[in-house]
Amino acid sequence: MIRRLGFFCIVIFLALTTFGHGADEPSQVEHKWEPYSKDRQGVNFYYDKDAIVYGTDGVLKVWRKRDFPIRARYREIINLDEIDCFRQKYRALEIKVVGWDDSVESFKRVAEWSTIYGDSPEEYFLDTACKEFKKKKK
């Protein structure tokens, strides 16, 4: 009886520490950031190439990070974004904002779809990851 209770407690502990936390939270994931863009204001854009998830509906999920210059309001913003390869739109699913004082604000709400315009950082994914997605579909 005590062994069963101990085993049950371990299973509950593992379930609580695995579900609801874990891989989807930017603060708990070790990302391998690769640079892919920089804008005129000095913002550097990165993404985790190894963590791209290709959905069956033409939508991929990608972790992205923006590092801001010193004069900016925030130090960095990390997003989990969806990119619709066929409709050429994107939206944030999750956002983590880090201030210069190391304060952190996290938001888990789905944003509305936005159009991906030419010469935007998001266009990079249409030109790379979405082409890979279309190859995988064939």
Average pLDDT reading? 82
- Binned, the helix content reads 10-25%
Strand content: 35-45%
Order of helical and strand elements: HEEEEEEEEHH
- The first-to-last residue Cα distance is 55 Å
Structural class: alpha+beta
- Low-confidence stretches are 1-24
Largest sheet: 8 strands, antiparallel
- So how many helices? 3
Oligomer: single chain
Count of DSSP strands: 8
Computed Rg: 18 Å
Overall 3D shape = globular
Brief rundown of the structure:
The chain is α+β, with helices and mostly antiparallel strands.
Could you explain how this protein is built, in words?
Strands 1, 2, 3, 4, 5, 6, 7 and 8 form an eight-stranded antiparallel beta sheet that branches. The protein has helices spanning about 1-20, 125, 130-135; strands at about 35-40, 45-50, 55, 60-65, 75-85, 90-100, 105, 115. About 20% of the residues lie in helices and about 35% in strands. It has three helices and eight strands; from the N terminus they run H-E-E-E-E-E-E-E-E-H-H. A hairpin with a 4-residue loop joins strand 5 and strand 6 (about 90-100). The protein is globular and about 45 Å long.
Show the helix and strand layout.
Elements: H1 2-18, E1 33-38, E2 44-48, E3 53-54, E4 59-67, E5 74-84, E6 89-99, E7 104-107, E8 114-115, H2 123-127, H3 129-137
Antiparallel strand pairs: 1-2, 2-4, 3-4, 4-5, 5-6, 6-7, 6-8
Record keyword descriptors for this entry.
138 residues; alpha+beta; 36% strand; globular; disordered N terminus
